[in-house]
Amino acid sequence: MVALERRTGTAGFTLVELAVVVVIIGVLAAFAVPRFLASAERSKATEAFNHLATIHSAMERYHARQGVYSDDIANLDTELGDPEYFTVGPIAVPAAETGLETGWELTLTRAGASAAYGGYTVVWNQDGFDTVNSTISNEISPLQTASS
Q1: pLDDT, one tens digit for every residue, the chain (148 residues)
Q2: How many CA within 13 A on the CB side of residue 58?
Q3: Is the Cβ–Cβ distance between 52 and 108 less than 8 Å?
Q4: HSE-up (13 A, CA, CB side) for residue 129
Q5: Are 142 and 124 in contact (CB under 8 A)?
Q6: Under a CB-based contact definition with an 8 Å cutoff, are residues 37 and 115 in contact?
Q7: What CA–CA distances, in Å, run from 145 to 48, 62, 99, 109, 136?
C-alpha cells in the first residue's frame, strides 16, 4: 500500500483576502448600478420621445392639409399604439396659443415605477420638445439638453 502523504501547506483563501474581494466588488457595484439604472430609464424615456416625435410629424402634415392641428390622435395619418411605459394625455391648446390653428400640446406621463427618478412628464408642442413644462431629469433625457 502506498502511504498517504500529509500536506503541510494550507489551501484556500484567508478571511482577509475574501473580505478585500467583497469590498472591491462592492465599490465597483456602487458605481455601476446607478449608471445601469440611468441607462435603463433613458431607454424607456426614448420611447416617449419617439412616440411624440412621430405625433409631431403627423400633426405638421395634418396642419398643412387642414389648416388647424388635430384635437385627436386618431385623426392623424399614422398608426400608433400606446407607449408601454407612459400614459398619453389629451391634446390641448398651450396657454400661450389662441387655438388649434396656431398650436398644440401633448403630455406623456411615466406610468409605474421608474427606478430612482419617480414620476415625470414629457411634453411636446408644435415647436417640439417643451423643456419648460417637462419634468424629465436631464440625466435620463435622451436629448440631454444640459449637463447633469
Answers
A1: 556 666 666 688 899 999 999 999 999 888 888 888 888 899 999 999 999 999 999 999 999 999 999 999 999 999 988 899 999 999 999 888 888 899 999 999 998 877 678 889 999 999 999 999 999 988 888 886 444 4
A2: 17
A3: yes
A4: 19
A5: no
A6: yes
A7: 16, 28, 28, 19, 11
Amino acid symbol at 40? A
Whole-structure pTM value: 0.75
CB atoms inside a 10 Å sphere around CB 129: 19
135 alpha carbon, distance to own chain's centre: 12
Instruction: Give the N- to C-terminal CA distance of the chain in Å, as an integer.
Output: 73
